[in-house]
Write a structure and sequence with these properties.
Layout: E1 3-6, E2 9-12, H1 19-47, E3 57-62, E4 68-72, H2 82-89, H3 109-119, E5 127-129
Antiparallel strand pairs: 1-2, 3-4, 3-5
């Protein structure tokens, strides 16, 4: 995370920027983060044995920290970030069938990726995702 020292404390560099500078900064991180997350997603699929047996892969990035990850859908993680736990409660909680009654909350690729980024110091409002890909079909 980019930190700046001001008035005896550290804060986010964004706190010191004008709205125009924040827009440019966000634009840069959105483009750069997105490109890196696409690469990470594609490399995850390419470098995983039996990737074609996985349901979905996704890339994700944090516009504040610059962290990037890629994940497959899978089992509910053993350790889940509190921000994600709280957000999941709004749709029935982790392990529930969510609001549509069809998908288990906590197993999707987006959940897996967000959990990793949050566990590395991210904030839920700063996480962005690539398009999901079905490794079996590439679509």
């Amino acid at each position: 995370m980019c930190l700046a020292y001001q008035s005896g404390k550290y804060s986010s560099l964004r706190d010191l920027m004008s709205p125009e500078e924040v827009a440019r900064y966000d634009g840069y991180w959105n483009k750069d983060g997105y490109d890196k997350a696409i690469t990470a997603r594609n490399m995850l699929i390419q470098n995983t044995v039996d990737a074609n047996k996985k349901a979905v892969a996704i890339g994700a990035y944090d516009i504040e920290t610059g962290n990037v990850t890629a994940k497959f859908a899978g089992a509910i993680p053993d350790t889940i970030n509190n921000q994600l736990i709280e957000r999941a409660k709004l749709i029935g909680g982790i392990g529930s069938k969510g609001i549509n009654g069809k998908n288990t909350v906590g197993v999707c690729a987006e959940f897996q990726a967000a959990n990793e980024l949050l566990s590395n110091g991210g904030n839920l409002t700063n996480i962005r995702f690539t398009e999901a890909v079905r490794p079996r079909t590439g679509k």
